[in-house]
Amino acid sequence: MTTKTMTNYHAKKRRNTPLELVVNEYVADLRLRNLSERTIKLYSVFLRSFEKKLSDPSGKGQLRLAEVTPELTRAYFTARMQQESIYKDHPCHPETQQRLSPHTIHREVRTLRAFGSWLAQQGLENPFRDLKLPKLPRPLVEVLDAEEIEKLFAVYNPDTRFGARWQAMFAFALDAGVRVSELVGLQAADLEIDRFRAKVWGKGDKERFVAFGNRTQHLLLRYDNLFRDRQCPVFFQTLEGAALTFGGVQTIIKHARDRSGVKRLHWHLLRHTFATYYLLNNGNVFELQELLGHTSLEMVRRYTHLAHHLAQGSVELRRRSPLDNLERRGMKLDRRPGANGQRGPAARPSAPDPDRGRATGAR
Predict the structure, then answer these.
(1) Among all residues, which ones are annotated catalytic?
(2) SS3 for 145?
(3) Which domains are present in the chain?
């Protein structure tokens, strides 16, 4: 058998491989490329769901790679865009009457295009080569205003472990603009509180330094000295002293949103707030790009437009720490939550702690 015949033979054999096995091979390759576990999980969960939905409903036969065609893929996305509910057959969420968001469809198309590029690199046909990325809406970037920030600082009693941790992580997010994954991955050894900076690990395990101001330094020190378990190397922890997780942070954010009344609160809003106030405080876009860990200036330009719009109100700010500058302008961050959310004596939160009993920090 000639080399060419052998090549054709192996290519034909690979095309007849069950898609599930090819996906497993692709996920293993993603790990070799040192992608983040969250990215790998997103790719893996979607591709396995894609394979399951396209397979024989009777379960008698596995879908083979050769059977995945552009026509089948287009039919899949047509059905996805027309479906009327989400979370169908989900083990944790009840089915909800709601269409899929454009961002979900966009992410799924991106995942299949990346998978298709990998197939082409393996010498196989790419059935996703003609998939076009759908256009996404470009809403105006929102930021927290001073009143909302003041409410969120006062939402928990800072003399408790929960409240001290909340103020430290909230301040760090506003002053450093970190992603959730960077916050939960922050090691105590990488936090140089006396030098007003921390080393974080961003997407693709890229490390960078972020800075923070005086108020954040004070809150980090307070949490570290009074409440943090020194046996755990991770800086932000559950109430039991284990490493805080992505799901744990989302639970804390939801609890703070419900308790404070700031209904639009989500983690990335803190990142948007940092970036916009940084530019208002005379920071430049190239510094901001480095601090945010962006590889391009595209997202930074959106913050530039928003900062320019906000600056029309004659903002006079000299330093770049959002919290320090807001305090100079009269915002009070030392309030204690009272019985009706007003200023008053220190009191423990009436609602249960969101991550109480989560020794592993997981959902």
Answers:
(1) 179, 203, 268, 271, 294, 303
(2) coil
(3) 3-121 (no CATH), 146-328 (1.10.443.10)
